[in-house]
Amino acid sequence: MIWTLWKKEMESYFSTPLAYVLIGLFSLISGIIFFNLLVSYTDGIQSMPPNMAEQISFVEEVVLKFFANVNFLFLIFIPLITMKLFSEEKRLETIDLFWLSPIKEWQVVLAKGLSALGLVLAMLFITGVFPLVIWGVGVRDFSLLGTSYLAVSLNACAYIALGLFCSSISGNQIIAALLSVLGIMFLWMITWGGHLNSNYLVAEIFTYIGITSHFERVLRGILGTQDIIYFASFIFIFSFLAVKSLGRRNW
């Protein structure tokens, strides 16, 4: 049943211009960002004495900055993907068709979440051409490439779970998207608040609750148990809230 729903959702994405527009825009913007970072790195190398050029890290200046920008792009793109998952169904009243079948709420949430993740992974797949470009220009430093993709993928899963919940509580796509954007920004601001707080305990709590600190750790290849627990808990909690939100029809 989940597989059938997933295929239906993927077909609904790619049967409309939405998926192609989002993938095209994401590819264009990420391509421009990658090109600018690569040019800046090359100019920096050429403008420095040969004995100091080695101090500029390609991973730091290009790879990590690129994936940090990809994470920022997800602030806009993922809410656009998730906003219609339940809001559109509610507006058209087609969501009632699910409840007339033996399918459970958690199966609907899981199928829709996986379909959104499938579209996001398709967007990330396009960026796979950039390592080939790097290889072509003679750079062989791919030390953090795998963990960088893992970091943005985990963040994407967390944003999708949040977006699912926002879409489940609103019958308006725009409101669902705005709630998702505000929720993601709030998660970023919590981490910044932890960095600015002088109280050590409060700062540690804020830093752990905020998603940015965990993203940066995984991005740099420091994947710990606390990060795995954080992302797993985050995804579970908001998926659970989405299931409960859908279940209110029985209350």
Quick overview:
This protein is an all-alpha fold and 251 residues long. The protein is built from 13 helices and no strands.
What does this structure look like?
- The chain has 251 residues and is an all-alpha fold.
- 82% of the residues lie in helices and 0% in strands.
- The protein has one domain (2-250).
- The model has no long low-confidence stretch (mean pLDDT 84).
- The protein starts with a helix and ends in a 5-residue tail after the last helix.
The total count of helices amounts to 13
Biggest pleated-sheet summary: none
Write down the overall geometry: globular
Q: Give the ordered list of helices and strands.
A: HHHHHHHHHHHHH
Instruction: Give the total of beta strands.
Output: 0
The rounded Rg comes to 20 Å
Unreliable parts: none
Strand content: under 5%
User: What is the average per-residue confidence, as pLDDT, rounded to a whole number?
Assistant: 84
Total domain count: 1
Record keyword descriptors for this entry.
single chain, 251 residues, mainly alpha, 13 helices
Which helices and strands, and how do they pair?
Layout: H1 2-14, H2 17-47, H3 50-53, H4 58-82, H5 84-92, H6 96-99, H7 105-126, H8 129-136, H9 145-168, H10 173-196, H11 200-209, H12 211-219, H13 225-246
Helix pairs in contact: 1-7, 2-4, 2-7, 4-9, 4-10, 7-9, 7-13, 9-10, 9-12, 9-13, 10-11, 12-13
